[in-house]
Amino acid sequence: MFADSAKIFIKSGKGGDGHVSFRRELYVPNGGPDGGDGGRGGDIIFQVDEGLNTLSDFRHVRKYVAQNGEEGKKRKCHGADGKDLVIKVPAGTVIKDDETGKVIVDMSGDRKREILLKGGRGGQGNMHYATATMQVPKYAQPGKAGRELWVRLELKVIADVGLVGFPNVGKSTFLSRVTNARPKIANYHFTTLNPVLGVVDMGEGSGFVIADIPGLIEGASEGVGLGHAFLKHIERTKVMIHMVDAASVEGRDPIADIKAINKELEAYNPELMKRPQVIAANKMDAVFQAPGEPDPLERLKNEFEPKGIRVFPISAVSGQGLQELLYFVAELLKTMDSAPIIFEPEFDPDYPDNETLPFSVEKLEDGIYSVEGPRIDKMLGYTNLDSEKGFAFFQKFLKTSGILEELEAQGIQEGDTVKIYQLQFEYYK
Questions:
Q1: CB–CB of 340/161 below 8 Å?
Q2: Using alpha carbons only, what angle is made at residue 207 by residues 284 and 273, rounded to the nearest 5 degrees?
């Protein structure tokens, strides 16, 4: 069975604790502090492995934890850093936060290696805490905890063209004729169990990648059959080829089939309906038109070509019409952006948010306001306000959390002071 989705737990390493020790040497009765710093915890890193094409390895191992940093040592020695943990995934893997479903990173295009969770910083040893008034500090800083997260991996194949159609319309035969793919071909009334990728060689170094997208049957968008599992694979495709049985060998109506699949695509993701579509009317060599019956090819053209969807009569078995179809698709792709469709990040593990935690806004006196609460505590715990990225996140947090709105409701004016625990800011609109 093709594995295209997996839920795993990841955790970066904890930073090593700083060490408490004092210099002890012969003839040096009152040596000072010499406790070293703890090592940095290992990072969780995702890396593309071109040799992988499924997520099946993640069925058996679901917990990935990087190594912790070592504790600091005597004589000002630094603890060893924890080893990073590199998790290898196929190209096209989208990593999402499991709780929210938001995209963290799409391992496609130039994104071959991404640090998802950074290890905790090592704590400082007691050698850093000696002062004129405290010459024997017995305190060292503990290492910072590692970050942990449940993530969902989803493999969305990277192909220029998606081949869709009901089972047994000839998609596998078509793919075997026009690409280097070798799918199993038989008279299956169920569906292929995994997406099949093939490269169409148009000569002179040009060509495109086509994927047979399985499981698209009525109810697929609602999880019927395998459809819901495989619909995600069509999200990257730029052009869709609808393949239908124009001869109605099994009594199916090709027009009704196309409308049914488009309904499933739209229900799954309305953006898919904006992609160009082409219809491949297959099995034309088997068409039998009784006297007085409408021509099935003309029916398809009359229904869809006024909507801008070209219809090509083909026979995947004999090769009839395949060149015309492929050259049309190749020319269509030339008018489109050649870069692969990549899903933009929606969630930053370094700066998560918990909208359920409360906060309070209080006017202390004229011109001074206080903002406190568990939600503020959590935000300050993972935000580095000294960095540009951290301060930008802090400003966005104040706006999106409703804190600025509440301050304005209480009458704050430009130049007034906002106190957030030990921090103070001037308010400017």
A1: no
A2: 65
